[in-house]
């Protein structure tokens, strides 16, 4: 039975590795490790994972900083069910998966790629910013397993007014997402992905996160001419929701497509405005000095 190893990344995302029976896998900081965790408190070769008799997986600690499960140090751990293990300070999830589940995950990834291509074509057909935002929101809801998703344009870098779509939680007077999270994304112009906000230093005590019980959040900046003009935002208010690097890569691609389309719409609007101004001037000149 294959084993999925999900490693929490410094940016808050989760990187998934799929291990198969028949060989041992090393986990550690060293480049030669099969699964590399670039953290200074992770040993060069921190642990070994291997399936016994091609069935039951086991973990063996080979580190100086220890492996921990359920708060206790473990030198050897049998992985018969989903288990959370810490390699030093880095949290990882180990999950035995059926071969049919592996095939299902591969099929889901193919489907998501197809959906992105389809939405890319639809984005090209949108003739207004509002239509673009609504389509991007629909696309994110299909990609991600979180409860709420939206595309937002902001009127200023200080996150003053949100120009977004119609659900009540997105409206200016009733916005229940995390402004602090979005402001930080806009300020850094970088992807933010946090699967458990209650454990995130600097965010766990933010009033919006406490007041609206936001458990997980993802924000990807919309960049136009080196300026953040908005975000693709998603969150979860009932449970933690870990975002994989594949999730983030897909949303980043969607953000690039959306920003390009907004740029083209802006250019179209400017050309139309110039054309209208020139036509008006020509008409006024003709009316003033008819031939």
From TrEMBL:
InterPro entries: FHA_dom, GAF, GAF-like_dom_sf, SMAD_FHA_dom_sf
Record field: transmembrane: none
Domain FHA: 25-74
Listed name of the protein: GAF domain-containing protein
């Amino acid at each position: 039975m294959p084993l999925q190893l999900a490693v929490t990344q410094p940016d808050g995302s989760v990187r998934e590795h799929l291990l198969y029976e028949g060989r041992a896998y090393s986990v550690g900081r060293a480049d030669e490790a099969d699964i590399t965790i670039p953290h200074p408190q992770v040993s060069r070769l921190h642990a070994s994972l291997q399936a016994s008799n091609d069935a039951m997986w086991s973990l063996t600690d080979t580190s100086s900083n220890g492996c921990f499960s359920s708060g206790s140090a473990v030198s050897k751990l049998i992985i018969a069910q989903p288990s959370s293990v810490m390699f030093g300070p880095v949290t990882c999830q180990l999950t035995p998966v059926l071969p049919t589940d592996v095939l299902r995950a591969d099929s889901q990834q193919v489907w998501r790629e197809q959906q992105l291509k389809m939405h890319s074509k639809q984005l090209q057909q949108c003739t207004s910013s509002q239509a673009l935002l609504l389509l991007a929101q629909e696309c994110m809801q299909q990609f991600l397993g979180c409860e709420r998703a939206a595309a937002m344009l902001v009127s200023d870098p200080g996150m003053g007014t949100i120009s977004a779509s119609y659900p009540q939680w997105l409206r200016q007077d009733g916005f229940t997402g995390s402004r602090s999270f979005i402001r930080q994304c806009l300020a850094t112009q970088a992807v933010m992905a946090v699967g458990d906000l209650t454990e995130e230093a600097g965010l766990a005590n933010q009033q919006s996160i406490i007041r609206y019980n936001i458990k997980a959040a993802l924000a990807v900046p919309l960049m136009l001419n080196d300026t953040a003009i908005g975000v693709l935002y998603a969150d979860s208010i009932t449970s933690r929701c870990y975002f994989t690097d594949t999730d983030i890569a897909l949303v980043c691609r969607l953000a690039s497509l959306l920003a390009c389309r907004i740029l083209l719409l802006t250019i179209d609007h400017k050309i139309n405005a110039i054309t209208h101004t020139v036509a008006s001037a020509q008409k006024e000149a003709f009316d003033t000095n008819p031939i």
